[in-house]
Amino acid sequence: MKDELTYAPADGAGCHAGDTMKAAAREAGNSEVLDQYAADYPQGPHDKPQSMCPAFGSLRVGLRMRRTATVLSGSACCVYGLSFVSHFYGARRSVGYVPFNSETLVTGKLFEDIRDSVHELADPDRYDAIVVTNLCVPTASGVPLRLLPSEINGVRIIGIDVPGFGIPTHAEAKDVLAGAMLNYARAEIEAGPVAAPVSAKSDRPTVTLLGEMFPADPMSIGQMIEPLGLAVGPTVPCREWRELYAALDCGAVAAIHPFYTSSIREFQAAGRPILGSAPVGVDGTAAWLRGLGDAFGLSDTAVAAAQNASLPAISSALAASPISGTITLSGYEGSELLVARLLIESGADVPYVGTACPKTPWSAADAEWLENKGVKVKFRASLEDDCAAMEGVKPDLAIGTTPVVQKGKELGIPSLYFTNLISARPLMGPAGAGSLAQVVNAAIANKDRMDHMREFFDGVGHDDTAGVWEGTPNVREDFRELNRKKLEKQARAAKAAEMI
Ligand code: SF4
């Protein structure tokens, strides 16, 4: 029998215990899952999450789905953080939690507790599906969610491992759950007839959209593809179980967000062609409609008609809302390259785009278009890459993640938070063209205010000396040196222990 440390590795070391946890997960029999994740979500320059806990992505996908219950299994601090963020972002239902301690983890009782809770929850009048998620410690300990029953009283049970040491971003965690659900739904379709979608199915061939986007975007896409005789199908991640069947029953899949690797694997297994990039700006829309025509084997005339119906309106909208200025852009949503394309077509100079997501075949066309415009595109960009680009370029506007924005403001550079202010806007077709100009131009015009704020806060301190002090902060470099040596010694001892 394994000792307790093997089962409960590095609890308390949290998000930054990647290698230790990974080794423990392999020893606990989870190598197959980790190998699949390594293939689907290749690691970048850092081996630990630099954004929020990755499991937030899959948790949110589950919470946004009707008649779906979500249950977390993980350290209480992780679950507290994840529930807090879910409710901050407007989750309107409870997050289930099966707590554990060293004993229940070591003896396997935790798995029994999870199984009991799932049995208790599985009420077909309330739920279509229950999603159970292993966070870092239960994944590292090999809590075998695959041994849960696949269905109880007609309620589907989906068990997923979403550890921070295997899934680099919360964006990719959305794919873990979306892919697991598509896999389940595909098996149901193969086994026999399934329920029809609540909304009537279009009599035209449909295009499934992949990626969370602004609610008006699917409608804009629908208008653009109408002249091709096509209709928009469901958007994955879906909001309802039955939509998964309709999503799989499409003519082609548009990977608007290019990082949904495991979902794409499911669509490919169902024989659906996949289309990269998205209908953003003039060039993007023209190429995307062309690609869609090819996927459906449509004539050049039909494609030209669809292009003629959309492109003039996009050109006019872009011309009516020009952007002038230099912008660095970074984020972890997966739509960074699309936003950069739109900014450039609006007139902005964008020397750097960083995305925390990896390079995939579905973002290749966007990366190529941007590189041809002289943009440095960095996939799996780290926070350090994004900050270095901003500090080097000194743009008129930095669009980025919270720490990039914070650093930008400290430097007096107008900055916008990508997730809340940029990705929550329409991007597609005529509605997307020009939609960024208002917020971007207003921010660029704020330079004087940023300079004034910088002067106002000058001298209040940085990092650990920030805040209100009665006297001058007493910075003890000698204590820091001692502490640094202590930490180095601990790290050496841990490394030596690993090698025994
Ligand atoms: S589950 Fe999330 S918050 Fe908890 S240790 Fe893992 S990455 Fe960190």
Instruction: Give start-end ranges of low-pLDDT stretches.
Output: 1-12
Largest sheet: 5 strands, mixed
What percent strand? 5-15%
Distance between the termini: 19 Å
Principal-axis shape: flat
Q: Please give the radius of gyration in angstroms.
A: 24 Å
Number of helices: 23
Strand line-up in the sheet with most strands: 2-1-3-5-4
Report helical residue fraction. Answer: 40-55%
Number of domains: 3
Secondary structure class reads alpha/beta
- Would you identify the CATH H-level superfamily of the largest domain? Nitrogenase molybdenum iron protein domain
Concise overview:
The chain has 23 helices and 14 strands. It has helices at 4-7, 18-27, 31-40, 55-63, 76-88, 102-107, 109-121, 136-140, 170-191, 216-225, 241-248, 261-269, 281-296, 300-320, 336-345, 364-372, 383-393, 402-410, 418-422, 429-432, 437-444, 447-457, 477-499, and strands at residues 68-73, 96-97, 129-134, 151-152, 155-161, 206-210, 231-236, 252-254, 274-275, 326-331, 349-355, 376-379, 397-400, 415-417.
Any overview of this molecule?
It contains 23 helices and 14 strands. With 500 residues, the protein is an alpha/beta fold. The protein has three domains: 165 residues, Rossmann fold; 109 residues, 3-Layer(aba) Sandwich (Rossmann fold); 135 residues, Nitrogenase molybdenum iron protein domain (Rossmann fold), CATH 3.40.50. The longest helix has 23 residues. The N terminus is likely disordered. It starts with a helix and ends with a helix. The structure holds iron/sulfur cluster (SF4). Iron/sulfur cluster binds next to helix 5. Keywords: Bacteriochlorophyll biosynthesis, Chlorophyll biosynthesis, Oxidoreductase, Photosynthesis. One of its GO terms (cellular component) is membrane.
